[in-house]
Structure formats: structure tokens, C-alpha cells
């Protein structure tokens, strides 16, 4: 009976984590570039229990008994989100695979699908959190009518010029296993051993998506899916609580029998 207490407690912890993750998904439904997460569960290591035969003799047969559930990881799902037009000249959406590479304050690189860019005080493309786009080009202060095509080429009209000038190109990054990227907040991810090493390419090259100027990619959160998952998690939490309550009542009854 003591086992039931620990097993139901493990279920309560797991479902609480599930509800927390769903809550974060729903809270970020309007966050551009946000990718929903899911909780991965696993059965706790089973224990071998000797079974008693009909002749009341212990046999070598064993029954495998579960000991509850545990959360082994939380993974990010990089399915595409809906594209929304913003008319912003520096808003970019990736239509397909790939990440924007950003330079963090400590010199490391981080990756994101959030394409809301602005020009910083030196004219470099930077995220709304102030991190520059890696290998970014400097946009002259007198540049007008900035255009970024699907292949990442940046052109603009410079003062005194009648023809458009090519200012540079934008590269994208991909990973063999993007689901293994580690989220560090603000829609940014860092690679690890499981995600594989980064590969670079131009937008619209094989394996890379194209760029859409004036658009942002919305979160890939579906309200109906999240609500369904939330109802299931709530029911599972309630059932685990009832098991815990039932086990406690049985223990109380056993203790009263000894008086």
C-alpha cells in the first residue's frame, strides 16, 4: 500500500509538469516565432516480485511491477507556424527549415525563428532583444527602400544612386536534430551534442526555407490541441489524487484495526 502512495505522487508530479508546459504554450500563442513544447514521460524502473504458486510454494516466476511515471524531458516541436503580414521592412519569416543565427552578448551564438529585426545604433540588423544577426551587413544611414528577397539578398537605394545597391546576404542555420535544441528563453535556442553541429546555407537552397520580407511567423500553438491536452492532464491529475486519497484511507483503516 505504501507503494501506491509513491506511485500516485509520481503521477501528480508528472501531470503538474504537463499542465505547466501547456500553460506556457497557451501563454505564448501570440509570441512570434514561439514553438510549443511537450512533456515526455517514461515508466519508472520496474521491480521483480516473486509470485506464489497455487501449491503455496515460491516459484522462480517473477511478475514485473511498475513503480509510477516520471518526466524524462521536455522537447520543443518545430512545426511551422502561420505567417502574418506586418508590412515591416525588417520583419522576416522563414518559410521552411532554418534558424536565424544571433550573436549573444558573451560572444556565443544562439538561434531563433523570431524574425522581428531592427537596426541597432550602428546600422546592423538586430533582434528586438538587441542581439545582432550573425554575419550581418551594415545598412548605411542614408539607405532607403530596403528590400530582402527570398534568397536573403539585401538591396537598398543609397543617396545619389538611381540603381539599387546590393548590401549583403543573410544566411540560415540548420541542425540534424533541431528537436534536441535547448531553449534558453526569448525564443532562443542553443545546440547540444544531441542536436548535432550547425550547418549553414542560403535561403531557398536545398534543406533551407525561403525568406518572406514583411511577415513574421506566429506561434505553432493550436488552441484546440492545447485545450484537449489540458483536459486530459487535469483528469489524470484528479485520478492520481484519488489514488493517493484511497491509499491513505486504507492505511488509516489498517491502523485502526490494530487498536
What can you tell me about this protein's structure?
With 259 residues, the chain is of the alpha+beta class. It has two helices and 20 strands. The protein has a five-stranded antiparallel beta sheet with strand order 11-7-8-17-16, with no helix packed on it. A three-stranded antiparallel beta sheet has the order 12-13-14, with no helix packed on it. Strand 16 and strand 17 form a beta hairpin. Helix 1 runs antiparallel to helix 2. It starts with a helix and ends with a helix. The model has no long low-confidence stretch (mean pLDDT 89).
Features:
259 residues, alpha+beta, five-stranded antiparallel sheet, three-stranded antiparallel sheet, 2 helices, 20 strands, 24% helix, 34% strand
In short:
This protein has 2 helices and 20 strands.
Low-confidence stretches: none
Question: How many DSSP helices?
Answer: 2
- Radius of gyration over C-alpha positions, nearest whole angstrom: 27 Å
Largest sheet: 5 strands, antiparallel
Structural class: alpha+beta
Rounded mean pLDDT score: 89
Classify the beta-strand content into a percent band.
25-35%
Helix content: 10-25%
N/C terminus separation: 19 Å
Order of helices and strands: HEEEEEEEEEEEEEEEEEEEEH
Task: For the largest sheet, list the strands in their spatial order.
Answer: 11-7-8-17-16
Question: What is the number of beta strands?
Answer: 20
Subunit organisation of the chains: single chain
Structural shape:
elongated
Topology:
Elements: H1 2-27, E1 37-43, E2 47-52, E3 58-65, E4 69-76, E5 83-85, E6 92-95, E7 100-103, E8 109-112, E9 117-119, E10 125-127, E11 132-133, E12 144-148, E13 153-157, E14 165-169, E15 172-174, E16 182-185, E17 188-190, E18 199-201, E19 210-213, E20 215-217, H2 223-257
Antiparallel strand pairs: 1-4, 2-3, 5-20, 6-19, 7-8, 7-11, 8-17, 9-10, 12-13, 13-14, 15-18, 16-17
